[in-house]
Design a protein that fits this description.
Distance between the termini: 7 Å
Strand content: 5-15%
Bound molecules: adenosine-5'-diphosphate
Structural class: alpha/beta
Largest sheet: 5 strands, parallel
Number of domains: 1
Radius of gyration: 18 Å
CATH topology: Rossmann fold
Strand order of the largest sheet: 2-3-1-4-5
């Protein structure tokens, strides 16, 4: 039996760092941010629908979507963001599901789905279990400022646009805090992998 583990967490909480560890362990990672990007590539289903709704003014001269302009519009209007999500989310889910199926057919026992907005998008229904990487807000601000070269205010704005950590903690099956070193995070994830293996063996 295959287990699909949804991996989520706020911006700069350590999801990519966790992915890197899982990848080292040979686990397949489905990256929903990458998929969200790909469905807006020229000629893809999301591309066509976005242009149909938002208009050709969001095209660059080479016909690619001007993601920066589109981002400006949707991140300043919850209504426009909801419309964009209504277009993109079903396409993202379809692609994730297809990749899950491929991995299952390839005999993979554990599949990681990295989804920053797993809970916000209702994506947990495609996962058997969910893992939240959690860090306190002050540490999140520091790591985000440093990684993306942002001011404190810009970092805070991005954090505040996401679901509050306390709410995510309630929804997650497993919570791993990433307040120590990367090695400490990896040790916790290794422990979780053992636990998941044990639970899976108990189920079968
Ligand atoms: P996310 O993918 O959730 O946005 P990242 O994995 O990119 O977050 O982590 C955010 C930043 O914090 C990166 O620069 C990463 O190298 C750093 N980082 C992650 N975990 C740790 C840690 N335990 N100690 C120090 N820095 C860390």
């Amino acid at each position: 039996m295959t287990l699909v583990l949804g991996l989520t967490g706020g911006i700069a909480s350590g999801k990519s760092t966790a992915d890197a560890f899982f990848r080292k362990k040979g686990l397949p990672i489905i990256d929903s941010d990458l998929i969200a990007h790909q469905i807006l590539n020229v000629g893809e289903a999301g591309y066509l629908q976005v242009i149909q709704y938002f208009g050709k003014k969001f095209l660059n001269s080479d016909q690619t979507i001007n993601r920066h302009q589109l981002g400006k519009v949707v991140f300043s209007s919850p209504e426009q963001l909801a419309i964009l999500n209504k277009i993109t989310h079903p396409l993202i889910f379809q692609t994730i599901q297809a990749k899950i199926t491929q991995n299952k057919q390839a005999g993979k026992q554990l599949i990681i789905v990295d989804a920053p907005v797993l809970f916000e998008s209702g994506g947990q229904k495609y996962c058997d279990k969910t893992l939240l990487i959690a860090i306190p807000e002050d540490m999140q601000i520091e790591r985000l400022m440093q990684r993306d070269q942002l001011t404190r205010q810009a970092a805070l704005n991005r954090i505040k646009s996401q679901m509050p950590l306390a709410q995510k903690i309630k929804l997650a099956d497993y919570v791993v805090t990433n307040t120590g070193t990367i090695e400490e995070l990896e040790a916790k994830l290794a422990e979780l992998l053992l636990k998941l293996k044990g639970e899976k063996n108990g189920m079968s």
